[in-house]
Design a protein that fits this description.
Blueprint lengths: L10 H7 E4 L10 H6 L6 H10 L15 H14 L4 E5 L7 H13 L3 E5 L3 H4 L12
């Protein structure tokens, strides 16, 4: 990736280069802001900016235990983006997203300079790919 043989990296360096968002996101206890800034992932300002781009800045102080599935998915993807890695792995990234969230995701996939690998059953999402690999009978 970007001229670096990933097998030559130790696990700590590998983790610095990869971010991911799962189909069923795991969020830490606390608020959305806590999750977006955990481990110095982002400053409060960057977290608010990301939520504003999502039209979800009203969630900043909300406890994650009361988030809907789509809100959890948005926060999970936002966390991966805030990590600012070269490689982004997404598992069913459109899972539970409303129309606005889906538009945001499509915009990310169309305009990012990151390498993005994702799994999706959605033809609408997969058509945004440069390359598609189909798995059958697994």
């Amino acid at each position: 990736m970007n001229g670096i043989e990933l097998s030559s990296l130790n696990i700590i360096e590998w983790r610095k280069k990869v971010a991911f968002a799962l189909q069923n996101p795991y969020l830490f206890s606390g608020t959305v802001l806590d999750n977006l800034t955990i481990g110095n992932l982002a400053t409060k300002e960057k977290a608010v900016q990301m939520l504003t781009e999502l039209n979800s800045d009203y969630l900043i102080e909300r406890d994650v235990s009361v988030l809907s599935g789509g809100e959890r998915q948005k926060i999970s993807i936002a966390m991966a983006l805030l990590k600012d890695t070269d490689l982004l792995l997404l598992d069913e990234p459109d899972n539970n997203l409303d129309e606005a969230g889906l538009m945001w995701l499509k915009d990310i996939l169309k305009n990012t300079d990151k390498t993005v690998l994702f799994i999706s059953h959605s033809a609408e999402i997969t058509k945004l790919s440069n390359q598609i690999i189909y798995f059958q009978g697994i």
